[in-house]
């Protein structure tokens, strides 16, 4: 009896605190604090699709499904027997410099970066043992691109490094066979998806495993909960890693570490769970497009509006850029990321580690979004102004003033602002006239309030 009790105790100790391969157990894992505190990340799309670099990163699929633009493009510019894999040799990466990337990403003010390790085309940006002759070491660059970027990020910055991985591949014969069998077989999962995921985690130790492509089948086909229980229990990143919700068409926006709920998800209302707005600076493509026009890109005001609305409602924002086949970040992306970094240098106090306030969007001035933070046991409220108020008077309906209310602007060194209670409720803030050297930013300003309810 004593031996039996000891054995039961050992089993109890082994299973205590472990996550079982089911969603109830996996969803019970607390989200590592660093992710919510970070608020801003950068997603990098780079792959064979960067060679044709027209229409989108879905080029191969769109060409095979006879999208007229691409049919004409290929007919007019390539020989008749050209195939998509022929593009891989032209993914040259001759100007790729991982340390230059790391410097730019650091300047952007982002706190984490996610790089595409494998998109739906199946080409792996690392020398995978499970993608023979269709990876960046065997074809094209002849380099471990994931490894170089990860090493530069970790040695030159304090950013967290994550990897995007597509669960499926458009034209992989094993996947096509599983699909024709109504996913009752899992040959593709056994030969490709799961071995690649374990390989990525064990080799590169990412802080984020950003899954995609789950829309093709339910979670049980992908063996999602089996992998995630290992990731949380036994992987080398078990204590720090975070994952998204794309682990099966039936679990999107329901299960996972944080929720994406589809691309460009921006609900503009407070969410019950941690979520992420993954959006592209090119409004029409995540991959780099050679024929993009200036008006196709987000302006700084448009981008900062997304940042304000997302963080106010409890989300993180993951801002995507596309890379050229040569491995460069084109000037339009450099410019946007540099300007974003300058804005966050001034206004990051109201963004990083902030929490949603009791109100997200102001009840009078709808161009104002709120965040909050406690600093040295003192609560502060931040009003992010997407426009400069008329007559230099900002009228806010949500804050309730007190005898201790103090109002200032992040980055403004001219002192506190005068204010008075608004007759209909809230506060009227009188903004001083500022010359060009005094105004903290060109676009979007953050009011800091102390002593408001």
Brief summary of the model shown:
This protein has 453 residues and is an alpha/beta fold. It has helices at 2-15, 23-26, 33-38, 59-64, 68-77, 98-107, 145-156, 173-180, 187-204, 219-222, 224-233, 300-312, 331-347; strands at residues 40-45, 112-118, 160-166, 208-212, 242-243, 275-280, 315-322, 368-375, 378-385, 393-396, 406-409, 418-421, 427-430, 445-450. The protein has two domains: 29-350, Glycosidases (TIM Barrel); 368-450, Golgi alpha-mannosidase II (Immunoglobulin-like), CATH 2.60.40.1180.
Largest sheet: 7 strands, parallel
Distance between the termini: 62 Å
Q: Which CATH C-level class of the largest domain is it?
A: Alpha Beta
CATH fold category name of the largest domain: TIM Barrel
Low-confidence stretches: 1-15
Q: Which superfamily, in CATH terms, is the homologous superfamily of the largest domain?
A: Glycosidases
Output the number of helix runs: 13
> What number of domains?
2
CATH architecture of the largest domain: Alpha-Beta Barrel
Tell me, rounded to a whole number, the average pLDDT: 95
Tally of extended strands? 14
**Structural class category:** alpha/beta
Query: For the CA atoms, what is the radius of gyration?
Result: 24 Å
The helix/strand order is HHHEHHHEHEHHEHHEEHEHEEEEEEE
Strand content: 15-25%
| Neighbour order of strands in the largest sheet | 5-4-3-2-1-7-6
Mass-distribution shape: globular
- Please estimate the helix content: 25-40%
Write structural notes for this entry.
Its EC number is 3.2.1.51. This is alpha-L-fucosidase. Residues 1-17 form the signal peptide. Residues 17-349 form the Glycoside hydrolase family 29 N-terminal domain. Alpha-L-fucosidase is responsible for hydrolyzing the alpha-1,6-linked fucose joined to the reducing-end N-acetylglucosamine of the carbohydrate moieties of glycoproteins. This protein has 453 residues and is α/β, with parallel strands linked by helices. It has 2 domains: 29-350, TIM Barrel (Alpha-Beta Barrel); 368-450, Immunoglobulin-like, CATH 2.60.40. It has 13 helices and 14 strands. The chain has helices spanning 2-15, 23-26, 33-38, 59-64, 68-77, 98-107, 145-156, 173-180, 187-204, 219-222, 224-233, 300-312, 331-347; strands at 40-45, 112-118, 160-166, 208-212, 242-243, 275-280, 315-322, 368-375, 378-385, 393-396, 406-409, 418-421, 427-430, 445-450. A 7-stranded parallel sheet has the order 5-4-3-2-1-7-6. Strands 8-9-14-11 form a 4-stranded antiparallel sheet. Strands 10-13-12 form a 3-stranded antiparallel sheet, with no helix packed on it. Helix 12 (300-312) links the parallel strand 6 and strand 7. Helix 6 (98-107) crosses helix 7 and helix 8 (173-180) packs across helix 9 (187-204). The longest helix has 18 residues, at 187-204. The chain is globular. The model is unreliable at 1-15 (pLDDT under 50).
């Amino acid at each position: 009896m004593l031996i039996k009790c000891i054995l039961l105790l050992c089993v109890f100790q082994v299973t205590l605190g472990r996550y079982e391969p089911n969603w109830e157990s996996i969803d019970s894992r607390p989200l590592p604090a660093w992710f919510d505190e970070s608020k801003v990340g950068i997603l990098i799309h780079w792959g064979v699709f960067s060679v044709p670099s027209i229409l989108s990163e879905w080029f191969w699929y769109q060409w095979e499904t006879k999208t007229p633009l691409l049919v004409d493009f290929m007919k007019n510019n390539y020989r008749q027997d050209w195939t998509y894999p022929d593009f891989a040799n032209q993914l040259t990466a001759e100007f790729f410099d991982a340390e230059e990337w790391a410097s730019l990403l650091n300047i952007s003010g982002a706190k984490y970066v996610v790089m595409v390790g494998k998109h739906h085309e199946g080409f792996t940006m690392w020398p995978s043992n499970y993608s023979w002759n269709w990876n960046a070491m065997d074809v094209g660059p002849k380099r471990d691109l994931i490894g170089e970027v990860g090493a530069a990020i970790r040695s030159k910055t304090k950013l967290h490094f994550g990897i995007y991985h597509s669960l499926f591949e458009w034209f992989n014969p094993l996947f096509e066979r599983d699909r024709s069998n109504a996913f009752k077989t899992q040959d593709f999962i056994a030969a490709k998806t799961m071995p690649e995921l374990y390989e990525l985690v064990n080799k590169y130790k990412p802080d984020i495993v950003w899954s995609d492509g789950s829309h093709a089948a339910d979670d049980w086909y992908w063996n999602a909960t089996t992998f995630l229980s290992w990731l949380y229990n036994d992987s080398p990143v078990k204590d720090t890693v975070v994952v998204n919700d794309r682990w099966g068409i039936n679990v999107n926006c329901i299960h996972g570490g944080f929720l994406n709920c589809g691309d460009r998800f921006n609900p503009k209302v407070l969410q019950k769970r941690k979520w992420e707005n993954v959006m592209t600076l090119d409004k029409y493509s995540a991959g780099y497009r050679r024929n993009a026009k200036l008006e196709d890109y987000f302006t700084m005001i448009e981008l900062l509006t997304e940042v304000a609305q997302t963080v106010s409602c409890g989300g993180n924002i993951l801002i995507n850029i596309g890379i050229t086949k040569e491995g460069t970040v084109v000037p339009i992306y450099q410019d946007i990321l540099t300007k974003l970094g300058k804005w966050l240098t001034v206004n990051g106090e109201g963004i990083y580690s902030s929490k949603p306030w009791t109100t997200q969007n102001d009840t009078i001035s709808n161009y104002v979004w709120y965040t909050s933070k406690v600093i040295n046991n003192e609560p502060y409220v931040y009003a992010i102004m997407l426009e400069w108020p008329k007559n230099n008077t900002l009228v806010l309906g949500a804050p309730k003033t007190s005898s201790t209310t103090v109002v200032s602007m992040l980055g403004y060194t001219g002192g506190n602002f005068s204010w008075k209670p608004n007759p209909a409720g809230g506060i009227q803030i009188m903004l001083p006239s500022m010359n060009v050297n005094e105004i903290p930013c060109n676009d979007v300003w953050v009011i800091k309030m102390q002593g408001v309810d």
